[in-house]
Amino acid sequence: MTFKSLEMRKLGPGNLRAIEIGVTSRCNFRCSYCGAYDLLERKILSVEDVARVIDSLPDLERVKLSGGEVLLEFDICVGIIEYCTAHGISTQINSNGTLLNDEKFNRLEAAGLDVLHFSLNHTDAARHAEFYKVTEKMFPKIVYAVERAVASPTIDAVVETILFNETEKTMADVHRFAADLGVAKHEIQMEIPSLHQGYENTLDHDRICDSIVELVQARRPETTMFFSCLSAYFRPGSAHWARLQPLFQDPGVIYASCIEGKAQLHLHSNGDVMICELGNPDVIGNVFDTDMLAIYENSPRLQAFVRSKHEDQTFSCFRHFDFPGQTEAQKKTGLTALPMPSVRK
Ligand SMILES: C[S@@+](CC[C@H](N)C(=O)[O-])C[C@H]1O[C@@H](n2cnc3c(N)ncnc32)[C@H](O)[C@@H]1O
Ligand code: SF4
């Protein structure tokens, strides 16, 4: 299975084919935009916990490990990847790239990891350090990790950049920087205003469209761009939607459909199951109480979500549905969002 192949199949509801697992919520960063659910949660899923979940899902094709920074629990990640590899299940790790070294790369390769996905929103150490409030030593670590992943004979290296006010004018620069490192797959993630952050940093639709058009014009021919969560912002039939659609005629520019709640669920480190960690962190069950397949098949809230949010054209998440209680900030950005469920106390 290749990166985003499930999203490119435009999977509707029916079979749970993918799970995203927050092995841990702990993280060595505190990104201002971070939408990871409950970063203060201190529980950790064991390899056995995850194996039990995997065994209960007959249609499972892909496991993505994403926290927090899951590489803080490196041995558990390796154990889960080995288990998936032995069962023919594709694996991906999402990482900030700061905790890897050669020995760890060798172990990930030996375990059979398929995709290493790095966050990259900057092109220089000084701005990276200033934005994240970390030391300038972090950025070269990320660059090394990306280069090492690119050089791997077995691991597919992916870089992800969030489109938000910090990167609006520099998306093309980050793309060229990643391409120069040898990265062939660049995911562009629309910012999902997080529970922690509110809506203040979100760009308006014109600025998002301008940035995307400029970025696609800068695409290096040897690379593929994958756009995620676009439908969270743009209503089909709108002028912005119409402006962007021709871009996706190019086979190097992929519209990644949303499979959250339909073919994928998120498993949090305390066993909570969510529809989508970023866009709809609504807890619909816990694997320590209920079998994950039973949660997927029987949750009335999941069924309601799929009924109201699934569209054949966009596979959209919730943000284009009108929402009566919009705040002034939401009105300013044109977002029409449902209220976020609150984080469990
Ligand atoms: C929560 S992080 C966990 C993995 C790892 N710590 C990292 O930063 O890549 C997973 C992905 O979610 C993205 N992300 C975090 N907050 C987001 C937000 N508010 N909107 C969109 N993407 C977000 C990050 O850029 C990252 O690529
Ligand atoms: S986005 Fe990733 S690196 Fe940043 S705080 Fe969230 S989990 Fe940590």
UniProtKB/TrEMBL annotation:
GO terms for molecular function: 4 iron, 4 sulfur cluster binding; catalytic activity; metal ion binding. The keyword Protein transport does not apply. Keywords: 4Fe-4S, Iron, Iron-sulfur, Metal-binding, S-adenosyl-L-methionine. Signal peptide: none annotated. GO terms for biological process: molybdopterin cofactor biosynthetic process. The keyword Transmembrane does not apply. It comes from the Bacteria. It holds the Pfam family Radical_SAM. Residues 11-228 form the Radical SAM core domain. CDD domains: Radical_SAM, SPASM. Its cofactor is [4Fe-4S] cluster. This is MoaA/NifB/PqqE/SkfB family radical SAM enzyme.
